[in-house]
Design goal:
Length: 419
């Protein structure tokens, strides 16, 4: 859950409201605008009058009125332009045809995800649009994920909607032969949705369990539809194995508990068993992709009875393979930690050097947090404190801020490195 109960209702209902409008009116950009206007109306009225008994129906009704008003205005403008002889070519004659077909929430959400991952868009735009329309993340939250300014992300989303409109895409399931081409983007969107839920980028809470659970549900839908798709199985296994740690990741006060200090008895064995079973089923089949590799790393963690018993050399090897298969800053960052644990902190700091030299990474707080941790392990308390201080300043997550400031206090008090 988030810190705002109204926001929780909105996040749960927004994709279904958007799906209902798309079935009736068809245009993604128009429907998203109408849903946003309905959300603004809810933000004003609900705190005064209370959340309606059926918030989805309320939002659909308000958003539909906004769309109908807009179409009527467009028609009126069109009639005026015809009478004046200045009608622009291609202007719509009326609102789009209504598609009254019904479907389940799960079908609606999957259709919406597949629409957002339209092949006319770049991968980054597919995923960003999915996070906005399906996960209900704000533009600021999505921009934080991509390490770009909110204005840049707004422009990217606007172009993506315009591209889908131009393509003529409708709110229907793609043909069977089109489905595989969209699956990779869908899995990326689900995984990023899960990542944002598993570690929130801002606010008081560390985990948005609702969002993480929704990402797992959607990924399970993809896997059920394509049981022979190895990466769909790998993505589902990864999320299950990772989410299994959630009960141990915060203490009673809501403060972050690092992996080394987590009570592994709290880890959810049901999710671990399901994730491991999926991996055992898929890994022998041949090609191993990025999600299977990440799931294998999560399984090594899950199988260690204690932090000290973790097979860090194996994790280091797996991250090395992952970096070749799907290189990214996040993978390099995690490999640095694994190398530090398998060899020593100095070796881990060497892995970090390319990221530290990259200007685009300088505002990524986790880079500085990891650097601080590794510097602390080397005994360079002053440099470690500087890195922790910078990381705390850059993050908008209050649990992460408290943890990093706690490390600063421990260093000042002469605490044990990494404790």
């Amino acid at each position: 859950m988030t810190d705002d109960p109204l926001a929780d209702v909105w996040r749960h209902e927004a994709p279904h409201v958007l799906a209902a409008l798309l079935r009736r009116y068809g245009d993604l950009a128009d429907c998203e605008d109408a849903v946003q206007e309905a959300a603004e109306a809810a933000a004003v009225q609900w705190p005064l009058r209370g959340v309606p008994a059926d918030p989805r129906a309320w939002l659909v009704r308000v958003a539909s009125r906004r769309l109908i008003d807009e179409y009527r205005s467009a028609e009126a403008r069109g009639r005026r332009e015809i009478s004046e002889g200045v009608r622009r070519p291609g202007d719509a004659d009326a609102a789009p045809a209504v598609d009254e077909s019904s479907s389940s929430d799960a079908d609606d959400t999957l259709r919406l995800l597949l629409l957002c991952c339209h092949p006319s868009l770049s991968r980054a735009s597919q995923v960003a649009l999915s996070l906005r329309a399906v996960a209900g993340l704000s533009v600021e939250e999505i921009a934080a994920v991509y390490l770009v300014p909110a204005r840049t992300m707004t422009q990217r989303l606007t172009r993506a909607r315009a591209t889908i409109r131009k393509s003529g895409a409708r709110f229907t399931m793609p043909a069977a032969d089109e489905l595989p081409a969209r699956v990779a983007a869908v899995l990326d969107a689900c995984h990023l949705m899960f990542t944002v839920g598993y570690t929130r980028t801002s606010g008081e809470g560390l985990v948005d369990v609702t969002l993480a659970d929704e990402a797992i549900r959607l990924t399970r839908r993809v896997y059920d539809a394509l049981p022979d798709h190895d990466e769909a199985a790998g993505a589902l296994a990864l999320m299950l194995l990772t989410h299994a740690r959630t009960p141990a990741r915060t203490d009673d006060a809501g403060d972050l508990v690092p992996l080394a200090e987590q009570d592994r008895r709290l880890w959810r064995r049901d999710l671990i068993d399901e994730g491991v079973a999926l991996l055992e089923q898929v890994l022998p089949r041949g090609h191993v992709g990025r999600y299977q590799l990440q799931a294998a790393i999560a399984a090594v963690h899950a199988e260690a009875a204690t932090y000290d018993a973790t097979d860090w050399p194996q994790i280091s090897i797996l991250y090395g393979t992952l970096e070749r298969v799907a290189p990214s800053a996040a993978v390099t960052l995690n490999r640095a930690v694994a190398v530090a644990m398998a060899q020593d902190a100095a070796a881990g700091l060497e892995v970090l050097e390319p990221l530290l030299a990259d200007d685009s990474m300088q505002r990524y707080h986790r880079l500085h947090a990891v650097q601080g941790h590794l510097l602390e392990l080397t005994g360079d308390v002053g440099a470690a404190a500087e890195s922790y201080r910078l990381a705390a300043r850059l993050t908008a997550s209050l649990p992460e801020q408290r943890y990093l400031n706690g490390r600063l206090l421990a260093l000042a008090a002469g605490g044990e490195p990494g404790s």
